[in-house]
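Consider the following assembly input.
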Amino acid sequence: MSQSLARKEKRRLFWDKIFYGQKKIDLSVDQDGSDIRYVRKRRPILPIIAGVSVVALIVISFLVMNVSRLDFNWSRLGEIISQMFSPYKGDNILLGGYNRDPETCALTFVFDPITGVATCDGYVFGWKGWFLYMWEKAIPELWRTIEMCFVATIIGGLISVPIYYLSANNVLKKPAVHHTVRIINDFLRTIPTLVLAVFATLIFGYNNLSGIVALVFFTLGIMYKLMYEYIETIDMNPREATRSAGASLMQDIAVTIHPVTKPMFLANLFYVFEMNIRGSVILGYIGAGGIGYLIQSLVSEGRYESIGAILVPLFIVVFILQLISNAISRKLR
Amino acid sequence: MTTTQIIMLVMAAVLVAALLFIFIYANVRKAPAGVTPDTEKNPFVKAYNWIFGSRKAKKFDGIFEAMYYSPHRWVMDAIFVFVIFAVLVSMSSDLDIFGNLSNNSAWETLGSRLKRLFSPDWHYFLGNGDFNFKEGVLYQLVQTFGIGFLSTLIASLLAVPFGILASHKLCGKKAFISETFLIIIRTFPEVLLAIVMVGLTGMNPMTGVIALGLHSIGMVGKLYSEQIDEIDFVPLEAIEAAGGTTFQRITEGIMPQFKPGMISVAIYRFDINLRTSAILGMVVGADCGIGFSLSNHSKGNLDSLLGADILGIVALIVIVDIISSYLRKKLV
């Protein structure tokens, strides 16, 4: 009996040391030199739970990844990158022909010394071919993608204006309205853009229109979330002044809230435009959208030099957009 | 001349006519009795004053004079809206939106396809029956979650030095180096990076982790620099005055204020990375999340399998959204 009691005491002391700590609250010292004034404090349990759960999640994630099959194939990476920026192997640019080597070409090899372009049966070789591909095919396709994103951003931005005014809790002080609108929009935001694009291609076909529809829903989700969080932090005192002067709801929104949100709205619209350009690369994989379709067809054929010709203008465009967005957000703060 | 060209010509003509009208009216209007006339000579400045108001300070003699010289900003707003509308019309015609609609033969089968989409295949979902467990939706969902989680973890830990070096308030002008570096990492769409990485690491979930992680470092670093611009710099000066090293300034001065911001940025980025990792599978190939199954099943007649995939993705995102919003409420 005394043995089990002693064991229970030891166990309780063990748990006590983990969950309770001692905190010294005074620097005074007793007569024989020992410290007094200790207080028994409960240790916060949240960091322990957070740490354990993070470690568990990491372990689960590593179980699922097949790390044993991982092996870094640097030679293949070098092959791909050197292929992306290599001289063009030959493509009938007007008709979109196949890859051909100069040796297997037919008898009509022609080198034009003025433009420096070597053609064979209408197929173009060399670095000039790379640049020609960039100018003739890649850049118009990229421009069309940018147009698609621009149209989707503007339409989405316009539609989102009433939605975010309705879902902020300062504007109409009715919980029924703003909770309902928030739940509907959260539901729309949960569905990934890809699934919406799949639905849109079912309805509209493999068209630019389905890409625009998917991007409009994507824009709605992001804009509404960013804007209603901002509106809830606006100062409401001017609104009381206009209300007491007898203004209706639309009048005081137009005078007090709307001019304050305009710079934030434009900055967010720009951010969404950037996100849309990234998204259109993905959407093209299904068939709706711009440049993703081109990239997918090129990857499946293994023609990496054309991908290099597409990457360079894409990189430049996104870089410039990032610089502008940086400048805008720095001006706002 | 096509219809769109005629429309664009008409809109351009309307714009030019409106600008001309503004120019002429602002210069020709006469001040009524009791109001001192404008002494401005330059016609362009007169037109600007009519729209936006004068740039120099003016002293008015009364209410009626102030109302006469008040600006009419709606003119520029109307012109802006008109220009955006014209740009939209030209872009839509260039994109050829309504081109393929009549060729679409999916309208007849749409009803049956939607019905099959909303009745998912449960054997495929759970990975039993005819399907291997590793090909079932549950395993792929856990893989997707793992890719998003690991990439966010790597990015949020590795981006701390870049974020600290990129804040303008802390480093002054030299922050542009780290900023440019982060922008260069950020500009590559993660999909293209994954395509290139497939050659490096094969069709593996780690491809997605590395590609997403590298891309996220750029995004997370930028958000970190914005957070650091908002902290209090007084403790840093105190530590420096008491003789602390730079490392002590960072660990004792910045980190305690920065930690809640770091965790909220990490949760935000985890949300976005999860949605992207559901898509990376399409690009990488087999065994990298649900994306591959999505792209496989959307071609052809496999709608019940596609429904199971969509249900899985939506369920995963909903659960993670609920948990992350709960965590964020606990933090703030």
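Chain B has a mean pLDDT of 86. Ask yourself how this observation constrains the way the partners meet.
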